[in-house]
């Protein structure tokens, strides 16, 4: 049996290790609940600079 | 299948054809030594039906066919561990690695298709390999197989010089090899045996008439029932209602010579020309070989340079390294599925239960071209799965549980299972076993913007649908719309990301939500119960994801938008049960449902 999940375009940033193995046609053994990826919304938030570390010159 | 592997054996009469005369094939045909072939036959070294199991090319009609190239041994100038590659056409195959020696012995054989205007020069490369140096090309040679096969020699074996790849190309060793043409009758017999084995469910090597009859019907054969009975009775000499595979295969092969039983290739579905037996046999044999990975040498590389990379060798030792367009040949090593264990960070070999292997083989060998076949096969698969489901729901099936656990002792951790073994009254109950709370922690459980894996499984993930098609899903008819069915619009998912969670028999068979959100809808789509093994997924003739029975759910998530969750049933495990329904709000990691044995 198989489950396939399809996400909308650019809605998820799948973990790099999973993508890398798949690009080599190698399946990755994973367990329920382990991380699959981040919402791209989350990614864009982490890309923002940490304002607490910002200073005016 | 090898739908493109058409071979024109009629070209044998082309001596008056100017094009053919100019061709190398035509020149070759002039050199074919029929006398030698006949002489060998007269010597009596035959298999009892007037043919050698393996022969040299004997007549002009035989020039197209399957050549069996065997790399026997080499004599090198120094000691090392050695392996050899054969590059032929677009593919490269390799032997195993020898002991540390000056005289490596491989005895590896590979079937190669010799066809008109096709490749006929094989390049053989010998590599040294050890822990210090990566695989270094030490020597190579090239052999024209057509010339080799037409030589007037009593020996099938030849020793060739291996040349240093760097100038001045000194001789660095010698390699012994043999090449012969596979006997058509033998090929046919083996082929018939393979087909018959599909319905030999218990692998006892015997078939009953109903099984034999079902198979012929399932393959869409138009032979009258009386013909089937006649064939079967001829093989069943003691009249006990069962015959051995060997007996029936021999009879079928002989029958096929007189009056072909198969009108189309049961693997790829391509129509077979009644008058073109040679082509048909080659086609059928290669289709099957493509499917079973039944050959000694491993394949999958495009070039010998590519094969020189050590990591590729390591991977291909067990894994099916799928190159573009070569996927099925390499992916077809059915019993050697390797996955990368994310937790342990290493490659592990997947063990498959014998019963499942049997069903996989049954499905796979006939399945690759099922889309073009009689619907009887689909019914047969459903019937098998339903029967298996009933059996697995019976109290007697519980006795299989200990054996199943023993078979997968490294992969089933009973300490994680919620209930003790005595709790499970049927095999199916054990199959859908629950796990203890907490043994599968949910990553970032409070953060809904982190998606999690939906099952204990072998996972493939692709950033885009295009990537998934390029690298993994080879079915020609695959599309997102096809996957989701006609009742759900695929527009939101066009060029989206796709993740495949493949559950192996030993896995925990409950599936969970990858994201939090509302279940917008669940749509059941009836369909077949083909295997979802990578072998099938990698095949351009299989469209398991769009033809199998499945249930499509749409989860509406605030962090990921819409997520299509498609639960796909497979051979034997065709029953899909949900524990949540339309309109429910679900949390990521929560159980959604389970797969169980049944149709």
- Average pLDDT for all residues of chain A: 83
Order of helices and strands of chain A: EEHEEH
Oligomer: heterodimer
Number of helices of chain B: 20
Molecular structure report:
The complex is a heterodimer of chains A (57) and B (599). Chain A is of the alpha+beta class. Helix content of chain A is 28%, strand content 32%. Chain A contains 2 helices and 4 strands; from the N terminus they run ββαββα. Chain A has helices spanning 16-23, 40-47, and strands at residues 2-7, 12-14, 27-30, 35-39. In chain A, strands 2-4 form a two-stranded antiparallel ribbon. Chain A is elongated. The model of chain A has no long low-confidence stretch (mean pLDDT 83). Chain B is of the alpha+beta class and 599 residues long. In chain B, a hairpin with a 4-residue loop joins strand 14 and strand 15 (346-349). The chains are: A alpha+beta (57), B alpha+beta (599). Strand 3 (27-30) of chain A pairs parallel with strand 14 (338-341) of chain B.
Observed structural traits:
heterodimer; A: 57 residues; alpha+beta; two-stranded antiparallel sheet; 32% strand; elongated; B: alpha+beta; six-stranded antiparallel β-sheet; 25 strands; disordered N terminus
Short description:
The complex is a heterodimer of chains A (57) and B (599). By secondary structure, chain A is α+β, with helices and mostly antiparallel strands. Chain A has helices at 16-23, 40-47, and strands at residues 2-7, 12-14, 27-30, 35-39.
Architecture blueprint of SSEs:
The complex is a heterodimer of chains A (57) and B (599).
Chain A lengths: L1 E6 L4 E3 L1 H8 L3 E4 L4 E5 H8 L10
Antiparallel strand pairs in A: 2-4
Chain B lengths: L17 H5 L1 H8 L2 H9 L11 E2 L9 E12 L3 E9 L2 E4 L5 E2 L3 E10 L6 E8 L7 E9 H6 L6 E7 L7 E12 L1 H14 L8 E3 H10 L6 H11 L6 E3 H14 L18 H16 L5 E4 L2 H4 L2 H9 L8 H5 L6 E4 L4 E4 L4 H14 L7 H18 L7 H8 L19 H5 L18 E3 L4 E6 L2 H7 L8 H5 L12 E6 L7 E3 L4 E9 L8 H4 L6 H4 L2 E8 L3 E8 L6 E4 L6 E2 L4 E6 L3
Antiparallel strand pairs in B: 1-10, 2-6, 2-10, 3-4, 3-5, 3-7, 4-13, 7-8, 9-10, 11-12, 14-15, 17-18, 19-25, 20-21, 20-24, 21-22, 23-25
Helix pairs in contact in B: 5-8, 5-9, 6-7, 6-14, 7-8
